[in-house]
Design a protein that fits this description.
single chain; alpha/beta; 3 domains; 6-stranded mixed beta sheet; 16 helices; 58% helix
């Protein structure tokens, strides 16, 4: 009998060991659509979130796990094999998060004041993850004159770089503030260290938080489906009736901003009527999406770039300034507005959510993927 029990214990150990390596491989390969369907993967991910050595050693002491002879990366696997309770793990994560959060909270008021100094959100043409390529393609490979290159650095790159750094700074700190709103909620288990594609767990569902605005591309696609021209085409046609001249060589985004501003600033009654109708049409289309968000969620997954593709669970926070979509970026620092809407949604979250959040989408590789996803719309009237 004793021999049978030892054999069973060895089998359990080898299954756990293989499971650990299996989870690790799926995680490293970004196969989240497979990983998140596996039994025990949530527990593994929670442990992964405390995988810094000092945290693991501290957790060993709390869980009465002897790790004195375990070195390096083997420590994570050793703790997993020891199988401490998930309840204890959750308690440890909550304690670590509260310690980190108290420090950030002490500086939160000052940080928000700094964020309100940001008056313009402009990448300066140097977009995220494309900085080096933009400089190489537009300056290094095109310019042969050293003097002209220096002139461009002083007059163009310098200003563009300032916009890029400021926009990146604004996005970084507002993202931390918004994540803390979620992590402060009682139904949320935070991550402590950085963990790929997971910012927190709502119940036992891991989510990668994506803060965005109402996508221009989706608006264009929706208008096309309704047989409507693009918003830019509508603006061009109207300014023509007003006799407004403009530089046609500009990029679409720059031209759109100029034409919209010039119409808004016009004192002509027909311009005021046009803007009212333009905003009414916009809001009507957005309302449809808020009522039935599945198409937007599917579109957001399917429009991922190849470099950043994954099928992880995503929670989209979509910020919408009802009267001025172009100013929606300012809402990322409006903590009172964000807290009310986010907490209201989290309060309603229950154990039956997983069945309702299932989304299927196709991607350019021809495969169909499944994930759990939801969207929270924050609207400023």
């Amino acid at each position: 009998m004793a021999r049978v029990q030892k054999k069973e214990q060895r089998n359990i150990y080898f299954i756990a060991m293989n499971k650990f390596k299996h989870f690790k491989q799926l995680y490293q390969d970004n196969k989240f659509d497979v990983l998140l369907k596996e039994d025990g993967s949530i527990y593994w991910l929670k442990l992964r979130s405390i995988s810094r050595k000092e945290l693991l050693v501290e957790f060993c002491a709390l869980a009465n796990i002897d790790c004195s002879n375990v070195r390096g990366t083997a420590l994570f696997e050793h703790i997993y094999d020891s199988n401490p309770s998930e309840e204890l793990l959750n308690k440890f994560i909550a304690q670590k998060y509260l310690a980190e959060r108290s420090e950030r909270k002490a500086n939160e008021t000052a940080l928000v004041s700094e964020l309100y100094k940001m008056k313009v959100f402009d990448w300066g043409g140097l977009y995220q993850n494309n900085l080096e390529r933009t400089i190489v393609d537009n300056y290094i490979k095109k310019i042969r004159s050293f003097d002209l290159l220096n002139e461009k650095i002083e007059n163009e790159i310098h200003d563009s770089m300032r916009g890029y750094v400021q926009s990146s700074w604004y996005n970084h700190w507002t993202s931390i503030l918004i994540e803390d709103i979620f992590k402060d909620h009682k139904k949320v288990t935070p991550t402590v260290g950085l963990i790929k594609k997971v910012d927190f767990f709502i119940g036992d569902i891991p989510f990668d938080l994506k803060v965005t605005y109402f996508p221009e591309g989706f608006m264009t696609a929706s208008r096309k489906a309704d047989g409507l021209p693009t918003e830019l085409q509508v603006l061009k046609r109207f300014v023509k009736t007003l006799g407004i001249k403009y530089n046609r060589e500009q990029k679409d985004k720059t031209l759109f901003a100029e034409l919209l501003t010039r119409i808004e600033e016009s004192q002509k009654p027909e311009a005021k009527k046009f803007i009212a109708e333009f905003r009414k049409t916009r809001w009507s289309m957005i309302q449809k999406v808020i009522k039935e968000p599945q198409k937007l969620i599917k579109w957001l997954y399917e429009e991922q770039g190849e470099r950043r593709f994954d099928a992880a669970n995503r929670l989209f926070l979509v910020l919408i300034d009802k009267n001025n979509l172009e100013e929606s970026w300012k809402m990322k620092r409006n903590l009172d507005l964000l807290k009310d809407t986010i907490n209201s949604r989290l309060n309603k979250f229950n154990g039956m959510e997983a069945a309702k959040l299932k989304i299927e989408f196709d991607w350019m590789d021809g495969k169909r993927y499944t994930a759990l996803s939801d969207v929270i719309f924050v609207v400023k009237d």
